[in-house]
Every structure is written in structure tokens, then in C-alpha cells.
Amino acid sequence: xxxxMDRVSEASKGxxxxxxxxxxxxxxxxxxxxxxxxxxxxxGSLAQHGVPFATALAPLGAGVELVGALLIxxxxxxxxxxxxxxxxxxxxxxxxxxFWELGGAARAPxxxxxxxxxAIIGGYFALFVAGPGLYSLDHWxxxxxAFARKWR
Length: 152
Prior knowledge:
The structure is a single chain. This protein is mainly α. The protein has seven helices and no strands. It has one domain (2-150). The protein has helices at 2-11, 13-37, 39-48, 54-74, 78-96, 107-130, 137-150. It is flat.
């Protein structure tokens, strides 16, 4: 049975990696765009969570979120982008979902959100290891460069 699953896995690898990249990116694209178009509100939220220099860090955080998600979606510089987005997600979880500081009914939802972020980080690590796949700009550029070198 594992031979069958290995063959199916290998045959569907490109499509599955594309689906994984899309799933990871759609979580961050709208959020990053929202933060960039409403930097004041995002900076205020960071400040409320005790982030120093919130006004200066808001454009950086929003930019990383949006650009990182675009890189993940397109599969361009995927391994770097996956590590960047994993780090971004660690920071976001530590800023926004500090469940350990809460009690009562407020604790459980924040703990779930924190653990979801841990799972997302795992997904970025898996993308880092697996690579961008067949349907990615990294793959396309690598083959285009190889073709160009061959014909020089």
C-alpha cells in the first residue's frame, strides 16, 4: 500500500505544492494588504500590544506579510520566503496571541489562535524542505536559465 501512496504522492507533487502555496498565501495576502492600506490602525494595534516603535515597525511588518505571501504564492525565492514567513508568524503569535497572560473565557480562543500559528509555522517549514515545486517561478526561472546556458 505504501508503494501506491508513494507513486500517487510523486505524481501529484507539483500540484500539491502549488495548492499548499496557495493555501498558505491566501491567509496572509488580504491581511497584509489591509495592514498596508491602514497603517495607522495597524500601528495602533501594535502599540496596544506593547510593541515599541509601533509606528516605525508597522510598514515593515505589513510589507513583510504582503511581499512574503506573494513570494509564497508565486514560488519565487520560496525557501527564503518560507523562512521569512515562519519568522513573521512567530512574531505575530507572540504579539497577538499571548494566551498565557489571560484567564477565564478569554484564554481558550487565544490559545487556539496561537496553536494555529504554530501549525502554520510547520507548514512553512514543510514548504522550505519540499521546495517550490513544478508550478513555480523558481522552477520556471531555473529551467529558463539552464536552457539559456545550454545555447550560449
